[in-house]
Amino acid sequence: MEQKRNCTLDIAKAICICLMVIGHSGCPEFLHRYIYMFHMPCFFFISGWLLKDKYITDLKQGMFNKIKGSYYPFVKWSLIFLAFHNLLAGVHIYNDSYTWHEFLVKVIRIFTMTGSEQLLGGYWFLISLCWASLLSLFFLYICNKKKVVNSVSIFSGVILCLLIVMLGHSVLGKLPQQLGGQTFMATAFYLTGYLFHKMDKFNKIPLVAGIGLLLIPAFAAQYAKWGMSDCNGWVSMAYYVVAMAGTLGVFSISSKLSTLKVSPFLSYIGNKTLYVLTFHFIAFKLISWLYVYVKGLPVDNLTQFPVLQDTSSYLWIVYSFVGVGISLLIWELFHLRVFSFNFQKLNKLV
């Protein structure tokens, strides 16, 4: 049972990371709105599901592990990409080079998790994940101290987070920049994932019901453009419901896919989500360069982000496949025996 459960989680991550790449690829507007209804909430839900009970009793170790899992890769890859910024600007990937002052400011922002490189635009997820996991751990630690870690207390934490987002600037304006509405939305989904784990509600959603749940964000996308970064007021409550419908739908589909022959490949993708998150924009630039070269367009078009704006209608499909494929290839290159030895030494320096 546990093995299947882990496979289902990996497949759910694979589905969501592929949806993320598609969402960034310049796909049709309705598909973009549909994806943004639930794909990132699903990631926070999965992270909450994976939270181990032992970290609730050992808060210090729990916080250390959560910081290590999100803060460390954020800083490492942000510094690496920052080091190459001016070189990439020289080949028209970026508009401008950094001065030394701008470079130092960027370094400070990286270490304080308040900003990263444009090619790592998806790294807002790691920032929100870091804070959401810490807030959730602290909340659950307090509940454990009072011996009230149960469905009611955990769901109360979810409602509290949503109320903070709903109240908006009157509450969030008094908090540090990192604790914005997006972070509290992430915390709500994180706690919900942990709640569903405690309730053991995982493989109990029939496939037909899962497909029906995925139709709910499709219906909402017809009339609204919602995402984790722009929900406030009553919309935050509605978005939570819609995003959870999509998330549970993904889990239902994933549970079914875990029984098919394609499951090992999807699990493989699901275990490489950090690399896809990190490198898919770079992969997009390769397609943009090829398109500019073939069409004889001005090379300055490469600065368009994340993809070229005026292209053939089908190119988003190419961007999507290459975005995932190149990222997986980079993972394989980094883990070649000869290359990985040098890369491990680089890790120790960063």
Main beta sheet: strand number and arrangement? Answer: none
Number of continuous helical runs: 17
How far apart, in Å, are the first and last alpha carbons? 39 Å
Which structural category do the helix and sheet elements fall into? mainly alpha
* Low-pLDDT windows of residues: 1-5
Number of strands: 0
Can you tell me the overall shape? globular
Order of helices and strands: HHHHHHHHHHHHHHHHH
Helix content: over 70%
What is the C-alpha radius of gyration, as a whole number of Å?
Answer: 21 Å
- How much is the average pLDDT? 88
Q: How much of the polypeptide forms β-strand, as a percent range?
A: under 5%
Protein described:
By secondary structure, this protein is mainly α. The chain has helices at about 1-25, 30-35, 40-50, 55, 60-85, 85-90, 100-110, 125-145, 150-165, 170, 180-200, 205-220, 235-255, 265-270, 275-295, 315-335, 335-350. The longest helix is centred in the first third of the chain and has 25 residues, at about 60-85. It is globular, with a radius of gyration of 21 Å. Residues about 1-5 have low confidence and may be disordered.
